[in-house]
């Protein structure tokens, strides 16, 4: 396996069977995967290489993104997500433009140079409303990058928002296997459209992020291999990888959550394959285990996304159960995040942190 990981480092790609054998072997030795250090496991080997590659490309810098969860309304009904429209157990909210700008202001004072507007697919935020928000954020904070994460839209809409000043877009593909996609989503949602959206975003010049949930229901080793091969082909600037976590009011409430170790392995492999990618150590990783986000950093991640949403709304933005939304997760606790990252040898920097392919 170590030879295959060396090959990945050199060639930045592997065949279907080669990828598959890494994951199959990893699963056999899962029990000895952690701790990461002083260990001859596949995870330990991959994470060491990932750290080295991350150091060569980004030093010990960690970029921060201020996450603003501005609406939990959603027209979609994804089986895994707590914001799905059929979930009647949550109180829905929207932040208006003024509140969003206030969140940015607070973030700016804390040193954030990227804001991420994330929300469900909420038709209230039509092209014009979004355009106004985008323009005003860019006008008030011209030295900041703006990332959107609001789902599938038409080419024209993405184009308008790009012209209004948006820099980046996150749209996890969720799975690169069409059949698997249809087990996670209702029929009204289409795999082809999601892939088309990702292509359009790239074409329009967004720094584009795809990504998956590790251990989502019905995910096979083959699905994961397809995800990795898709990423190799698509060459995203950003990749979001976090464990699937069940949410109690969704059809997947009884499904098993994704594994911490496998998430860490995939982070490491993606870092080795895409050395210049921006890889967040996700909130979901911090939720499966205390210190999970630090482990993500040690496996090659170089981004964290603290929450800038007003505290009173955070409990209603629960994609999954037990989501961390106080303490370290809160932007107010940036100091303690800084301390934790410093303890493992990394430094939070107050820069835009663009993709190296998009240096301004
Ligand atoms: N567990 C983990 N991640 C989830 N997401 C949505 N629901 C869950 C869940 N139950 C992820 C999806 C989505 C992103 C915003 O959050 O991958 O793209």
Structure notes:
By secondary structure, the protein is an alpha/beta fold. The chain has one domain: Alpha-Beta Barrel (TIM Barrel), CATH 3.20.20. It has 14 helices and nine strands. The protein has a six-stranded parallel β-sheet. It has a three-stranded parallel β-sheet with strand order 8-1-9, covered by helices on one side. Helix 9 links the parallel strand 6 and strand 7 (238-243). Helix 2 (16-28) crosses helix 9 (221-234) and helix 4 runs parallel beside helix 5 (127-140). It binds 5'-deoxyadenosine.
Secondary structure elements and their pairing?
Blueprint lengths: L1 H10 L4 H13 L13 H17 L2 E4 L1 E6 L25 H14 L3 E6 L7 H14 L4 E5 L5 H10 L3 E3 L7 H7 L6 H13 L3 E8 L6 H14 L3 E6 L16 H14 L9 H6 L3 H7 L4 E2 L6 H4 L19 H10 L3 E3 L11
Parallel strand pairs: 1-8, 1-9, 2-3, 3-4, 4-5, 5-6, 6-7
Helix pairs in contact: 2-9, 3-10, 4-5, 5-6
The protein binds 5'-deoxyadenosine.
5'-deoxyadenosine (5AD) binds next to loops.
């Amino acid at each position: 396996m170590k030879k295959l990981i060396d090959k990945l480092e050199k060639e930045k790609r592997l065949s279907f069977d080669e990828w598959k054998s890494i994951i199959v072997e990893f699963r056999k030795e899962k029990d000895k995967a952690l701790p990461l250090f002083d260990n001859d496991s596949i995870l330990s080997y991959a994470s060491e290489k990932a750290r080295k590659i991350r150091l060569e490309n980004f030093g010990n810098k960690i970029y921060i993104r201020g996450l603003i969860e501005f609406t939990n309304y959603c027209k979609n009904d994804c089986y895994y997500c707590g914001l799905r429209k059929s979930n009647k157990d949550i109180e829905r909210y929207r932040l208006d433009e003024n509140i969003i700008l206030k969140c940015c202001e607070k973030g700016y004072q804390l040193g954030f140079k990227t804001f991420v507007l994330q929300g469900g697919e909420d038709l209230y935020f039509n092209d014009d409303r979004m355009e106004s928000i985008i323009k005003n954020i860019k006008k008030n904070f011209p030295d900041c990058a703006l990332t959107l994460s609001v789902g599938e839209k038409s080419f024209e809409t993405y184009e308008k928002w790009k012209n209004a000043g948006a820099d980046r877009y996150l749209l996890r593909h969720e799975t690169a296997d069409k059949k698997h996609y249809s087990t996670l989503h209702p029929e009204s949602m289409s795999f082809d459209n999601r892939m088309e959206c990702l292509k359009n975003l790239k074409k329009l010049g967004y720094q584009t992020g795809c990504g998956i949930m590790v251990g989502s229901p019905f995910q096979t080793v083959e699905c994961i291999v397809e995800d990795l091969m898709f990423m190799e082909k698509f060459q995203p600037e950003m990749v979001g990888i976090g464990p699937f976590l069940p949410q109690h009011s969704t059809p997947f409430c009884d499904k098993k959550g994704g594994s911490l170790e496998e998430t860490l392995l995939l982070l490491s492999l993606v870092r080795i394959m895409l050395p210049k990618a921006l890889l967040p150590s996700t909130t979901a990783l911090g939720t499966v285990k205390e210190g999970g986000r630090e482990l993500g950093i040690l496996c090659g991640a170089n981004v964290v996304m603290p929450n800038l949403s007003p505290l009173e709304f955070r409990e209603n933005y629960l994609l999954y159960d037990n989501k961390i939304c106080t303490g370290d997760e809160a932007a107010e606790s940036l100091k303690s995040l800084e301390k934790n990252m410093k303890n493992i040898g990394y430094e939070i920097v107050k820069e835009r942190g663009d993709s190296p392919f998009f240096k301004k």
